[in-house]
Request: fold
Amino acid sequence: MRVWPGRPTPLGATWDGKGVNFAVFSEHATQVDLCLFDSPKAVRESHRVPLPEQTDRVWHGFCPDVRPGQLYGFRVHGPYEPHRGHRFNANKVLLDPYAKGIGRDLTWTDEAFGYKVGDAASDVSFDERDNAATAPLAAVINPSFRWLGDAPPRTPWHKTLIYEMHVKGFSFKSPWVPKEHRGTYAGLADEGSLRHLRSLGVTAIELLPVHHHVDERFVTERGLTNYWGYNTLGFFAPDLRLAADRDPQASVNEFKRMVRTLHRHGFEVILDVVYNHTCEGNQLGPTLSLKGVDNASYYRLMPGDARHYHDVTGCGNSLNMQSPRVLQLVTDSLRYWVSEMHVDGFRFDLATTLGRESLDFDRFGGFLDILHQDPILSHVKLIAEPWDVGHNGYQVGNFPVQWTEWNGKYRDCIRRFWRGDGHTAPEFATRLCGSSDLYQHNGRRPYASINFVTSHDGFCLHDLVSYDHKHNEANGEHNRDGDDHNLSWNCGAEGPTPDATIRELRMRQKRNFIATLLFSQGVAMLRGGDELSQSQGGNNNAYCQDSPVSWLRWRLTAEEDEFLEFVRRVIRIWQEQPVLQRRKFFTGGAHPGETGRDVIWLTPLGIEMTEQDWNKHYTRCLGMRIEGQMVDEFDERGRRITGDTLLILFNAHSDQIAFRLPPHVTNETWEPLLDTASDSNEKSYDSGETYPLQGKSLAVLKLSKVRKSLWK
Reply:
């Protein structure tokens, strides 16, 4: 086979119409061999040739006889010196770190490890067995695709509503998607899926990881899989297992068609991405890609003990964000997904890790700075999961401008309030108003707060109000996995079949959570399946449950269908009310009693709350008046946006409270828009009248002009 020197850029396998250029970075390698395979079933390579040139520590070569669809891997030569951080083993075929298509998945065998599994010397031993028959393989991809004028929706942050979903779980049991497409990229783009998303009114689809990943060996040995996919092997390749057509080229094109279709229907596509660690684990993990390409360059190793990994992710390793080549790997991957795959943004798993250049998180670190300056990445949506398990890992509120954050403090406070905990009212009000205490100090806006009550991680909404204890036995870890901080939000006797009173209370609490989420300033994220009353049977860590535990169930009971319609109704109110979609924080006003303020907090007596009211341990009922004429927003033509004045009443007590409605001008009246404890309330209320606010409920009223017919 002919191999010419080729070029050191771009990294990976690049088809130019005349052949394929291969380039891979390895600072400490002594030789890199390109291995070509004839088929996924091949037990050894058909051709093995050294890459003939090295430029700036990039090994490269051009193969004029190679075409798209070719399966390949690398063998990388160098020292095997674990105590110095080097784990080269040319007996192992490695996946290209820049692989854009997966031609064969990993098959677990002992040959996947660079050391002798079970050897007394453990990971410092050297395994000479060849893994060519079972190693994951890359495929050369032709990037050409007819985008047909595709354009990103570019939904403004303050008008964004995120729907978090798993590609497979969303449509796998959907009766409205063709069987051959269920659980795939094609299934998500099918009209049966789109119809549901349109009916909800969400604007952005956040996909759990779609980068190709590996199921951990210990998980597969239990007969399970890493369903969520937070165990990345390839940062450029869409997960082959989520494609209807598992040909590598076809899977890439299927993903692109999905994005194109979602864009056509107004939905943005946000990827949940895992750049903080890889599937290769710690010193006892397999040698599949980066570990064998150049372990000491790609991973953070312990100072003075390079055999071991500096792990702030809890997953065995952390990528070395101090390395320019690792920063390049991550940013090249991000640009690829925006430029070539047309996605609209990213949610960064354990994003604090990406901001660590030394021991602590640095909001001015290299990776965060690069994204701000990048002409492509600075224009997409960037969402941080602002924590990891390292020193000072909880960084909610500390990411820089242009970033939004999963607001874990919002989630915890909203749950505590509706559980009825004391001393929550002041923080509850702050969270409803966009968490200015977290985001205003550095010039960010309310939409920096990604508000959520539930997510893929933890209890789903139905189980949150139904279980006092996690039930993760099916995960095979004796119920020891899963966080305990989600516990004890239950509304009564645990289990799926409570009596009618408890069942109604649970449904009401679900309605309270949904309404609170949508009526808070910031960006709401809805966990996919919560609108369908999905239950995971109390499993709050279903990462390994590729089963009915995780798949959405589309055949609803009458009660579940009623809840779905409630969710749609709440979202419609959010869409129709500009006061719920503010770009700026409330000003509030400097003094109690001051007129012309955009938000006022009320006691059940209908008077403004005082400092003493805020500090009362038992304050669990309050009202929030939002002035519609003071939105202080302008449309694209510079016209002031106004809206209705809303009154939102919250009662976390168990008993009904007669909430006295605040004053207004004589020709206006309060009209109920929503009540989580009542299906309908058509009565209008005048100033000074009391509203029957049921226990554990939320109500929304709109200030409206009195109809002429009322004056007859």
